[in-house]
Design brief:
Layout lengths: L1 H22 L1 E9 L5 E2 L4 E4 L2 E5 L5 E6 L5 E6 L6 E5 L5 E6 L3 E10 L10 E5 L4 E5 L5 E7 L2 E8 L6 E7 L4 E7 L4 E8 L10 E4 L2 E5 L5 E5 L4 E8 L6 E7 L5 E6 L4 E8 L10 E4 L2 E5 L5 E7 L2 E8 L6 E7 L5 E5 L4 E10 L3 E2 L4 E4 L2 E5 L5 E7 L2 E8 L6 E7 L8 E5 L5 H36 L1
Parallel strand pairs: 1-8, 9-15, 16-22, 23-29, 30-37
Antiparallel strand pairs: 1-2, 1-5, 3-4, 3-6, 6-7, 9-12, 10-11, 10-13, 13-14, 16-19, 17-18, 17-20, 20-21, 23-26, 24-25, 24-27, 27-28, 30-31, 30-34, 32-33, 32-35, 35-36
Amino acid sequence: MRRTWTCVVIVLLALFLFTVTAAGVTVLVNVYEKEGNITPLSSASLYANGALVGKTNDEGSIEFTHPDTENVGILVQKLGYSPWEGEIGGNTTSLVVEMTRKKVPLIVQVYDTDTMTPIPGAKVSIKDNSWENTTSTGSTGIASWNVTVESVYNVRVEVPNYHGFSSQVEVGLEQKTVQALLFRDDRFSVIVKDGGSDSPLPDATVLVDGVNKGVTDLKGIVILALPREKVYTILVRLEGYEDYNQQQIVGKDQAFITVSLRKTPYSVFLSVYNEEKDPVEGASVYLNGAKQGTTSRYGRLQLTNLTFGNYSLEIRDPGYVTLRQSLQVSAQGEDIPVELGYQHLNVSVKTLEGGSVPVSGVKIFINGQENGQTDGEGTLPVSLRLNISYEFSAEKPGYNPVRVVKNVTSFNETGPLLIPMERSIDWFLIGILCAVVAAAGLAGVIFWKRRGTGRLHGRGRGL
C-alpha cells in the first residue's frame, strides 16, 4: 500500500513539473518613443526568434510566452522608426523598448526667379515644435539637414535684396526637397514697344546711367536690378527707331516702365536706268502698291516718310518690263539704283513673191545688221523692242533689194512682218541677147547682100 502511494506521488510530481515547463515564461513588452516626451507606441510589430508575435496595443504593450530554456531574440518594428533589436534571457518577464524616429534628408534649394541661378550665402532656417536650426546655402544654393520622418517644419529663407521665402513643409518617409524661388526686391523691368502698333520690340539695347544693361527679349522686356527711390537716366536704342532718353524715378512700389519707340523717318533716292545706263524719265514708282510719283528727266525720284525695313517696290514704264523687287530701307539719304529691261516682242519676218509665194534664202538686215536668212517657208523669227522704229532690208540674187521701216507698238501685233519680193531684170543677159540678135541681123544683111550680088553677075553673063 505504501509503495502504491509512493508511485502516485511521483507521478503527480512529474505531471506538475511537465505542466510548469510546458507553460513557459510570459514576458510583458512596453514600446515607447525615445525622443521628446515618453510616448507609448501602438501598432509596433513584435518578433520573437524571427516569428511574428503580434502588435502593441494603444498603451504600447504586448505579452508573449516562451519556454525558459534559452535566450530569446527580439525584434520590434514600426513604420517611420528605426528597428529595435535585442535579446532577453529565459527568465526575463518584462522588457522596455525605446524606439527612435528615422531620419531623412530635408534639402532646400534657393534660386533667383529671374535668372534661375543658385543663390549662395542665403540664410535658411527650419523649425518644428521643439527644435530649430539655421545654416547658409553653399555655392550650389543648397542647404540640407537630416530630420525625423512624418514631421512638419517651418522653412524660412532670407537673402539681402530679395523678398523672403516662408513655407510649411511636411516630411514623409522619404527625402524631401524644397525649391525656394526668390524675387529680387530691387527687380525693375523695362518694357519696350512699337509706338505705332504697340507690339513688343526685341533686341532693343537698354542703358541705365550710361551702362549697358542688356537687350530686350522676345516680349520686349529687359529685367534690371535697380535700388528703389532713386533717379536714373534710361536710354533705349533700336535700329530704325528714334532713341528714347529720359530720366526716370523708380519708386518704392514701381515694378516696371513702358517705353514706346517711334520709327525714324527715312528719305531715300531712287535712280532708274535702262540697259544702256541711260536715265528713264516718266517711270511710275509704287511702294507696297501705293504710287509714290514718277521719275524726272534724270531718272530720279525721292521717296520720303519711309521707315526702317523692307518694302515691295514696283516700277512701270511703257517699253520696259515692269520691275518688281524688295526694297530695303536701312540708311538715311541712300541712293538706290534700279535698272529696267526693255520689253521685246517676238515676230516673224516673211518674204513673199507676188503676195503669196514664199521666198527662201533671203538675207534679212535690221538697222544694217544681218539677222539671218529666211527658211523654206520664207520666214525668219526676230526679237524686237516695243516703240522703236526698225529698218528692215531684204536681199537675194535675182530679186530687187527691199527696204521696209516698221515700228512695233503693241503686243497685239502678233502677225508676221511681210516683205514683198520682186525679181530683178538681168541687164547683162539682155545685153547678150541683144548682141546675139544684132549679130544675127548683121549676118542676115550680109547674107542677103551677097546673094543679091551673085544674081547680078549671072544676068551679065547671059547678055
